[in-house]
Amino acid sequence: MERIKEKYTHELARFEVQRNNIRRLWNIPQDTAELLYTFVKIKKPKHILEIGTSNGFSTFWLSIASESYDAVIDTIEVDKDRFKLAKRNLKNRKNIIQRFGKAELIIPELLDKFDFVFIDAGKINYIDYIKILISKLKNNAIIIADNIISHKDSIKEYLDYIESSGLFDNVTLNIDSGLNVAIYKANKIR
Question: At 138, which CATH number?
Answer without folding.
Answer: 3.40.50.150
